[in-house]
Every structure is written in C-alpha cells, then in structure tokens.
Design brief:
Elements (H helix, E strand, L loop, with lengths): L14 E3 L5 H11 L3 E3 H12 L3 H16 L3 E5 L10 E5 L2 H9 L5 H45 L5 E7 L5 H9 L16 E6 L5 E6 L9 H6 L1 H9 L2 E7 L5 H14 L4 H6 L1 E5 L19 H17 L1 H12 L40 E2 L8 H13 L2 H6 L26
Parallel strand pairs: 1-2, 5-7, 5-8, 8-9, 9-10
Antiparallel strand pairs: 3-4, 6-7
Helix pairs in contact: 2-3, 3-5, 4-5
This protein binds guanosine-5'-triphosphate and magnesium ion.
Pfam families: GTP-bdg_M, GTP-bdg_N, MMR_HSR1
Protein name: GTP-binding protein
GO molecular function, one term: metal ion binding
Length: 428
C-alpha cells in the first residue's frame, strides 16, 4: 500500500510504520517488502540512543533497547556484525523455531533451542549489568545532589526544584532556556532532551529556583521503555513543583495532555503534586501558519508516514558525528553484549502498553489548564509564568522547611488555600 505511492522502491532504505507491530507482523512486512521495518517503539529507541548524552542516559537507552529487542523475533545485524538497525546495517529476520526446523526438519528443540537459551541468558546477564551500572550512575548523581543541598544549607538557603515536563516537542527546553536565559540544547528533533538538566532561575521575589528540563513523553509506549528511564524521571517525582508544557498548536492536544498525566501517574508523582501542577500553553505566537513539518507521531495518515520516512532518512544524514559516536559506542561494547537478539516466543504480541490507572488518580480533566499562555520563542507570558511559580512556591514554603529531612512534597496546609493568587492581568 505504501510502496504503491512511491515511484521507486529502490530508493527506500527502510520502512517506518507508525504503530506498534508484533514481532510476527514486523517479520512478515520485512519479508514482503524486503526492507528493514521499524515500528514506533523501535524508532523511539533509535532516537533515544542517538540523543543520550550522559553516561546514565546512554545506559538507560541501551536497557530500553535490550528490553524491547527481547520481545522481538527479529535479530538485527550491522555490517560489522554488531547489533544495530537501519543506517549501519540491515535487519535479518530469524525465527528460533524456523532455524530449528530448517536444521533438523523437526519443529522443536535441537540447536535452535539451545542457542535461544544462550541468547536469553546473555540478555538477562547484560540487563543485570546495565541495571547495576545505572544504579551506580544514579548514586553518583544523588551524591552530587546531596552535596548541592548541603552547600545550600550551609549558605542558609535551599532552592526549590521545578521539573519541566510535557509531551515531546512541546517546547520544554526552549522554555527552560528562555526562563533561565541560558542556552540549553533545543532542537526540532523529537526527544532532543534525554538528560535532566538543571538551570537556576531568579523569581520576581528574588528567590532562586532550579529548573529541571526533562525527557519528552509520548503516547503508547511500552511500560518497559519508560521504566528504563525511571532514573531520569526521578527528578520529576522529587521536584517541588511541576510545569507542564503543552504545545498549544498540536492537533491532538488532549491526547498529549492525557499521555503526560498517565506517565506522571505511572512514575509515582503524588496526586497533590499533580493537582498543583502549572499547565503552560506554549507557542501562542504560532497562529495562522501551516504546520509544515510533521513533528507528531500520532497521526496515522499515509502522507505523514511518508514524511516520517523522509525524516528517518534525514536523521541518517543529519548529524554524522553523532551517528559515528553511536556506532563507536556499539563497537566498544563488551563481547558479550547483545549482538544477536532473539525472542523466546514467536507469538509475542502482548507488549504491555500504558494503562489508564484504575484508581481515580488525578487526570488531565481534573487539572484543566491552561494556567498561563506563553511563547517561549518571543517571551510573551514568561513574566506571568514566573509570578505564578513564585505564588505556588510561597504556598509551600512552610511545608518545605519543616520537612527538609524527608525532602518529600506535602500538600499545602488548609490555610494556604486562603492565599489568593493575584490575577495574571493585575501583575504586569
Ligand atoms: N513557534 C514557536 N515554536 C516554539 C516555541 N517553543 C518551542 N518552539 C519550537 O518547538 C520545537 C521543539 O522545541 P524544544 O524546546 O526542543 O521541545 P522539547 O519539549 O524540549 O522537546 P524534547 O526535548 O524533544 O521532548 C523547536 O523547533 C522550537 O523552536 C514557541 O513558543 N513558539
Ligand atoms: Mg527538550
């Protein structure tokens, strides 16, 4: 269906399908099209990998890839034999059962099964190793954080932390950067930010806060993938206040909002913190213009698929140095890293997707924004946003001081409800 609209199939290097494919679907499509097929999760993992900069993020991205590939039948081999996809090599489809039967004429057992067990063990070993490395990297980060808090304590002040969350491409980095007047890494590419980045900002009250830019969320992610980033998302759970940046130009804004709420619920953000979250509608400067590039992965129309494939190609040529880095990374992996990955079952099609929490947690409808409308690009509304942050934090100050040891967020006291927020229009 897709190829019929393309003049020359030869020019297609790989096919991206904007859905989550089962292992069998992916294999069948690759057979029919004779091209590597990448599904939504596969693509996201590729992007995660390319954009991970710190050691912790790289480890987390590798873990996510490992967990995803564990559920795949497809083994992917680079030109040099290393595990990869697309740009460095080509995908080869192997079924453990198929191999066993082609070798022995039988259905089960034999060499195929033994190799499968070996692969499973390798994956399990690698996973444990990654988990322990992630734990170590996390420990280092926590030590740094504790050191920072201690220094601040000695200096007689402690900064509240604010995590900037939102769907991918909402403008979190641009907003964080605009607020802190520091050039963070902003980019049109999806998931430009994988590492939490702390920037200090002075509020109108003079109070200093730390803004933490975080990884973008996206809908329909397998739970394992987000679990792999748990450590990064920890910044979000522990923040004193959350800013939810929403791209007000996104066609499916409600879906983006609810995805963000689901993710926040899922990673254990306390309900009170969700209720207190500031919803910032960004890109208000962007009105009449046509959306030229498709940044969104959730519209399933064919022409968008074609655009995304273009994007995939562009990604290959876009930043060769980054690609080389990733390749080096892969080549430098230990020998027992995941070179051949096979799933244990051909019928794996039960990837666990985000589930709407059964308990009535705070959802997108309960916390209906926008609380403030801004343009991170032109600076409109930023002043109002800073005032709003100041107000929100003021109502929590007493709680925060009395609870320094535990460093857990507590709901504002009843008295605080009487603290009236100054209407935005009166503030300027
Ligand atoms: N018109 C307009 N574009 C904006 C605004 N804020 C951000 N953008 C653009 O939106 C794109 C994404 O911005 P980022 O700040 O990288 O988005 P992000 O939410 O950090 O994305 P990830 O880190 O990838 O999840 C970039 O092309 C920005 O220039 C805005 O206020 N107006
Ligand atoms: Mg970003």
């Amino acid at each position: 269906m897709l190829f019929q609209s393309l003049d020359d199939q030869e020019e297609v290097d790989a096919v991206f399908v904007n859905a989550i494919l089962t292992a069998i679907q992916q294999r069948n499509l690759e057979r029919i099209w004779a091209k590597p097929v990448l599904d939504r999760v596969g693509l996201i993992i590729e992007i995660f990998n390319a954009h991970a900069h710190t050691k912790e993020a790289k480890l987390q991205a590798e873990l996510a890839a490992l967990m995803y590939k564990k559920s795949r039948l497809v083994r992917v081999r680079g030109t040099d034999g290393s595990q990869t996809f697309g740009q460095f090599g080509e995908a080869e489809v192997v079924s453990a059962r198929g191999r066993a039967s082609s070798g022995n004429g039988g259905f089960v057992g034999g060499a195929g099964e033994t190799e499968l067990q070996l692969q499973r063990r390798r994956i399990a070993d690698r996973r444990l190793r990654l988990l322990s490395q992630i734990k170590e990297a996390r420990r280092t980060r926590l030590l740094h954080r504790a050191g920072r808090k201690k220094r601040e304590g000695l200096e007689g002040h402690s900064s509240a932390t604010i995590a900037v969350v939102g769907y991918t491409n909402a403008g979190k980095s641009t907003l964080t950067s605009a607020l802190s007047k520091t050039a963070l890494y902003c980019n049109e590419r999806l998931f430009a930010t994988l590492d939490p980045t702390l920037k200090s900002v002075h509020l109108p009250s003079g109070k200093k806060v730390l803004l933490s830019d975080t990884v973008g969320f996206i809908s329909d992610l397998p739970i394992e993938l987000v679990n792999a980033f748990q450590s990064t998302l920890e910044e979000v759970v522990e923040a004193d206040l959350l800013l939810h940046v929403v791209d007000s130009t996104a066609p499916n804004i409600e879906e983006h909002r609810s995805t963000v709420f689901h993710v926040l619920n899922q990673i254990g953000v306390p309900e009170e913190k969700l209720q207190n979250m500031i919803e910032v509608w960004n890109k208000i400067d962007y009105e009449e213009e046509e959306v030229e590039d498709s940044h969104y992965l959730d519209d399933g129309e064919e022409e968008e698929e074609a655009e995304l494939i273009d994007g995939l190609k562009a990604e290959e040529t876009f930043d060769e140095s980054e690609a080389t880095l990733v390749e080096d990374e892969i080549q430098n992996q230990d020998d027992d890293s995941v070179e051949w990955l096979l799933s244990e079952d051909e019928n794996v099609d039960d990837i666990e997707l985000w589930k709407v929490p059964e308990v009535a947690k705070v959802d997108a409808a309960q916390n209906k924004g926008p609380h403030v409308r801004v343009s991170a690009l032109t600076g409109v509304g930023l002043k109002e946003l800073l005032y709003l942050i100041d107000e929100k934090l003021k109502s929590e100050t007493i709680v925060e001081r009395s609870d320094l040891q535990e460093r857990k967020w507590r709901p504002p006291r009843n008295d605080d409800e009487n603290v009236r927020l100054i209407p935005l229009e009166d503030r300027v």
